[in-house]
């Protein structure tokens, strides 16, 4: 394979050529993201019949002090403190007063970050043990299954949720698989003990529409179509044309007074497409190749919907100017590539090059094990950046698995950084989180201490594992 320096040199030339010879990237006219958590608009037309029932766990006022604090906003505070009160961040700084009712944690020598967020997971829908009877992530029965919702496949007892929490994860985005052109709705959950998926749903977090480019739908539907990339594009455009007609009918009915007697017939497939067109959900598009990502941006512009993220984005470095302009987040691995042709042209500087270009760079897992170590995935990408002469600090890189990840799934207004008023989703690390020798020590979700390495609760690993998992296994 070509050397890293050859790839970087070619990429610089390609992007320079794009900047000088082409018009601005096609994603530049994407609709602006709503600043709130939880969409408005078509929710009046298509309300969620499965609302979140999540309630924060009991918490105590807690002051963490004497730590190295990475806020997620690019700030590093040495000898810093973080105050958690009533489930929110109540203070961040070098010197905070100790409230009379506070539990005080001396974190000298330790580091504190926002909770880790995984914007691309299949926990719950492909739970452990990974056997066919629990394989519920792909409804591979039609190229367009926009009618299915990932949450209806989530198994709350998946022990992967507890393992993710022990790795510092405080929120994750569970998506359908990538067999279909449109695979259905995604959902954001908290990895907390619950009897139901509704008890895990992140309150107010928007659903997403999972879509997939390239080889996966071509392979799955080779015998019945679409079997080509041009067939894929035709399939997406057809779906959005139908969705637009459906949305128009419902808007006209609403404008006419919403008479129950004349209500349009419901279609679950078209509801998800229409909700995306109406701005209530963003698209999350599985795509490896640069040219296909640009095609996706064109389709989004044609129909006026928003792409929140490209999943995997192995060739994102080739179109980093487009990605920066469009505001789309790219969910990446630092070194996972080459397992199929469309994933072959990966370079380890991918994350750094997007970051340098001002694009939204994000770590993601797509894997039950990687989700436990997203901080180390970021560490690998950070090292690649520094080796390539791309200056990135740890205070900046922490956003790759915190604030940028929250932005990718539409929850950055309430979590993803240590800022006053945001959810108290916090991790105390035994040392530098970019070191392989570091472990999570304590993990707070909405201010509640839900993982403590000194006294782990086996319930966090699910009822299914009680009496099976040795007590020492998680130490």
List keywords for this structure.
475 residues; alpha/beta; TIM Barrel; eight-stranded mixed beta sheet; 11 helices; globular
Description:
The chain starts with a helix and ends in a 23-residue tail after the last strand. Strands 1, 2, 3, 4, 5, 14, 15 and 16 form an 8-stranded mixed sheet that branches. An 8-stranded mixed sheet has the order 6-7-8-9-10-11-12-13. It has one domain: Metal-dependent hydrolases (TIM Barrel), CATH 3.20.20. It is of the alpha/beta class. The chain is built from 11 helices and 16 strands. The protein is 25% helix and 20% strand. Mean pLDDT is 90; it is low at 1-24 and 38-44. It has helices spanning 4-21, 159-166, 215-220, 229-255, 268-277, 290-303, 320-326, 350-356, 374-387, 394-397, 403-408; strands at residues 62-70, 76-85, 88-93, 103-106, 111-114, 116-121, 169-174, 182-189, 208-212, 282-287, 307-312, 329-332, 360-363, 426-429, 440-445, 448-452.
């Amino acid at each position: 394979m070509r050397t890293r320096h050859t790839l970087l040199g070619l990429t610089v030339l390609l992007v320079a050529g794009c900047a000088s010879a082409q018009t601005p990237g096609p994603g530049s006219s994407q609709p602006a993201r709503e600043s709130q958590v939880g969409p408005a608009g078509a929710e009046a037309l298509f309300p969620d019949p499965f609302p979140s029932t999540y309630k924060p766990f009991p918490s105590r006022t807690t002051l963490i002090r004497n730590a190295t604090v990475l806020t997620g906003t690019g700030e590093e505070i040495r000898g810093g403190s973080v105050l958690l009160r009533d489930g929110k961040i109540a203070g961040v700084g070098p010197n905070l007063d100790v409230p009379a009712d506070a539990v005080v944690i001396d974190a000298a020598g330790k580091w504190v970050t926002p909770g880790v967020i995984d914007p691309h997971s299949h926990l719950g829908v492909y739970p452990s043990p990974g056997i066919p009877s629990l394989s519920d992530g792909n409804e591979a029965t039609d190229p367009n299954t926009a009618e299915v919702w990932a949450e209806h496949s989530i198994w709350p007892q998946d022990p992967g949720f507890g393992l993710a929490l022990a790795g510092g994860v405080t929120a994750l985005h569970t998506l359908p698989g990538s067999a279909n052109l449109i695979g259905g709705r995604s959902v954001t959950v908290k990895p907390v003990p619950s009897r139901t998926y509704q008890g895990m749903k992140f309150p107010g977090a928007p659903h997403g529409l999972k879509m997939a480019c390239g080889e996966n739908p071509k392979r799955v539907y080779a015998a019945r179509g679409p079997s080509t990339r041009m067939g894929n594009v035709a399939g997406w455009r057809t779906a959005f044309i139908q969705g637009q007609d459906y949305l128009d009918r419902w808007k006209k009915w609403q404008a006419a007074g919403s008479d129950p007697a004349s209500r349009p017939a419901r279609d679950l497939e078209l509801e998800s497409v229409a909700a995306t067109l109406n701005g209530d959900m963003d698209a999350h598009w599985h795509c490896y190749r640069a040219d296909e990502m640009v095609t996706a941006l064109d389709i989004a512009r044609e129909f006026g919907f928003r792409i929140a993220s490209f999943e995997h984005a192995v060739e994102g470095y080739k179109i980093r100017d487009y990605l920066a302009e469009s505001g789309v987040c790219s969910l990446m691995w630092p070194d996972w590539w080459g397992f199929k042709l469309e994933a072959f042209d990966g370079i380890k500087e991918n994350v750094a090059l997007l970051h340098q270009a001002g694009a939204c760079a994000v770590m993601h897992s797509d894997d039950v094990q990687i989700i436990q170590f997203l901080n180390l995935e970021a560490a690998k990408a950070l090292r690649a950046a520094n080796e390539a002469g791309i200056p990135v600090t740890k205070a900046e890189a922490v956003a790759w698995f915190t604030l940028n990840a929250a932005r990718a799934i539409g929850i950055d207004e309430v979590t993803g950084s240590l800022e006053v008023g945001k959810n108290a989703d916090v991790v105390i690390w035994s040392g530098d989180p970019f070191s392989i020798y570091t472990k999570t020590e304590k993990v707070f979700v909405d201010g509640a201490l839900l993982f403590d390495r000194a006294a782990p609760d086996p319930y966090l690993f699910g009822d299914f594992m009680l009496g099976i998992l040795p007590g020492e296994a998680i130490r």
